[in-house]
Amino acid sequence: MTVPDESVDSRELMLSAAWDMIVESFGFGGDSPRPTEAKILEQLKAADIAHRAGLTTGAFYNRWPNRESFLTEFIDYALSVDRSPTYNTLKEIVGSFVGDPHDLVRLVAREDVNAIVANPAFAIHTHLWSMMRSREDIGRRMEAMYDEYRAESEPLFGALMDALERDVHPDFTMEEIIQFLMALSEGLSLQSAAGGPGAPDVDLFGKLILAILPSLTVPR
Q1: Between the ranges 19-23, 83-87, 149-153, 167-171, where is the mean pLDDT highest?
Q2: CB-CB contact of 206 with 105 (8 Å)
Q3: What is the spatial distance between Cα 85 and Cα 217, in angstroms, rounded to a whole number?
Q4: Which residues, in sequence order, are CB contacts of 129 under 8 Å at separation 6+?
Q5: Residues 21, 32: contact at Cβ < 8 Å?
Q6: pTM for this predicted structure
Q7: Using CA atoms, how far apart are residues 103 and 210, in angstroms rounded to an integer?
Q8: Domain range holding 178?
Q9: C-alpha–C-alpha distance, residues 93 and 38, integer Å
Q10: Widest pairwise Cα distance in the chain
Q11: d(C-alpha 154, C-alpha 151), whole Å
Q12: Residue 79: predicted pLDDT
């Protein structure tokens, strides 16, 4: 059913439509060819977005004065934590887990890598990262995204520390440890996504965390 142009949800519908178009072009569904880095955003045309959302092109321009205004908002949308449901999944695991806390760390680490690799947001974020030199607004938003991710990670990391009965080492801060673990997670996820015989085992992240944490934390 076509949604009326005046629908209060038209903004969300069109942002979501644009997201779905890019997700499909990256091979997560649909038959669109994979875009080159230069064409990731260029493929988003007002008429195509509106049509995908079940709206008219006029509805698009009622929301945004031009395509560039839409792209600026879409970049915010694409880099939002809401597009990456990994943290909610991990919070559920931590909240319901019963058993050896070391097994909990291994499980959370494994699911973190698996969720990142399977999440189309990771592919899109990686390609947007490659465009930061040509678009300063992407760089600023990527910085804000990582700030959001660190804030989302603090209670999760705190819960793991509670389970292990450890505190942050006085030489470090929780933010620094989270930054390190995020970088390690993304690096391993990139290699896992690439596949091949040299791809790391999904359990490697958990092994590394358990090996490194004694240097980054202290017993309570």
Answers
A1: 167-171
A2: yes
A3: 28
A4: 138, 142
A5: yes
A6: 0.77
A7: 10
A8: 81-219
A9: 38
A10: 62
A11: 6
A12: 83
Phi, psi of 219 (to 5 degrees): -65, 150
Q: Quick one: 114 and 182 in the same domain? A: yes
Domain membership of residue 1 (yes or no) is no
Question: Which residues are within 8 A (CB) of 116 and not within 5 positions of it... i.e. 6 or more apart?
Answer: 86, 122, 185, 186, 189
Helix axes 101-118, 204-216, angle to 10 degrees: 130
Residue with token string 């996504």: 193
Query: With contact defined as beta carbons under 8 Å apart, do 106 and 206 qualify?
Result: yes
Domains held by the chain: number: 2
What are 4's two structure tokens? 């009326």
Residues 6+ apart with CB under 8 A from 188: 113, 200, 204, 205
> Do residues 22 and 59 share a domain?
yes
Q: How confident is the model over 75-98, as a mean pLDDT?
A: 82
Token readout for 41 is 């955003």
Q: In terms of domains, do 95 and 71 share one?
A: no
Same domain, 54 and 120: no
Q: How far apart are CA 71 and CA 92, in angstroms?
A: 33
Cβ–Cβ < 8 Å for 19, 78: yes
